[in-house]
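A quick word before the example. In earlier lectures we treated sequence and structure as two separate objects. From today on, think of them as two lines of the same record. Here is 2-methylisoborneol synthase written that way.
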Amino acid sequence: MPYPSTFLPGPTGFGTSAARLFSELAGGHPAGRAPGCAPGPRSLRQPPLTFAFRPWVESMPPLYCPLTVRVNEALGEEVDDRLVEWAEGIGLHEGRIEQFRKAGFGRLAMLTHADLDDPDRVFLAAQMNAAWWACDDYYADETDLGADPALLAGRLALCMSALDAPPPADEFTAELDERLGADPVLVGLATAREHVARHSTPAQLARVNMTSFQMWVSWNAYGAWRQSGEPVEAWRYLAARQHDSFYTSMTLIDVCGGYEVPANLFYEERVHRAAMRAGTAAVIVNDLYSAIHEAEDELPDCNLVLLVAAERGCSLPEAAQRAVTLHNDLVAAFEADCHELRSLGSPELQQFLWGLGAWLGGGFEWHAGSGRYTLTAG
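And the structure line, produced from the sequence above:
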């Protein structure tokens, strides 16, 4: 059943003198739907996005970011319950299911897809994100869970087959299917992909697949760097990180919303640039919140804060301040992009741009409260 949503009021307190209202992105247009696309959910109103400086750690500069649009804890809990049931059913996170629940991927989807109150649509986003994160934890990042840079490339090749099954190849296909069905991480990807397929057009599904593959190319770079032990410059990491960002998650915005930004518009250079800026800004927030945890890993993963600190010989708080500045510059540029893109006139695009901003605000909110992250300013 749909849950009533609470839309948060406009800005109050610190930083609100810098707030800017995006009234032109407030909605008012019906969601477009391509022929063959599954019927969309009941559309919630889209209140104006409010950009403001948001405090996160007392001793650190604030992050410039849209305010959180909607909080609906009951909806987030319902989706988290569904996620736990799904994970237990496929054997994912066995022995760690409570840690998985505390991460709150259902809450992440509730906060970032603020125009939805249909649990199945929110679950779609949460399930796909949880599947991507499982690949990251078990294959790329967490050595205590079996992540091994020497095995990463081969594992990610199977991830590609889990999302985009190759055509049958006689008896070799049976061996592939057996391997895909034996690993809960790969089963998680395949089942999440099937859920996306039920709600997307072929073009949208291909977009999700290809963006995942793009993300995994960057993971292979990180794995090679960890394996070789070579120093990694911050600029090199950031170049890879821009293709391994929450842009991947943001490709689900119109899928979950029941409409479609046509491919030739979605990939139009200015639209693509705006979406990539939003995704990169959102993932810098992730780097800020995960820096301490990642520094303690046996084989520390690449992280913008850690790399800047090592490269410049500065403290973690000083490096974090540089990351905050970069984040704020990217969000301000994204805000300007959205103003410029009004000229394209597509209602679907305007709804999607609003969704990108809502994702930024909700992602900030989730990182501040997720059980995955423990933060200190040092």
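Notice the following. Confidence is low (pLDDT under 50) at residues 1-42. We will return to this example when we discuss secondary structure assignment.
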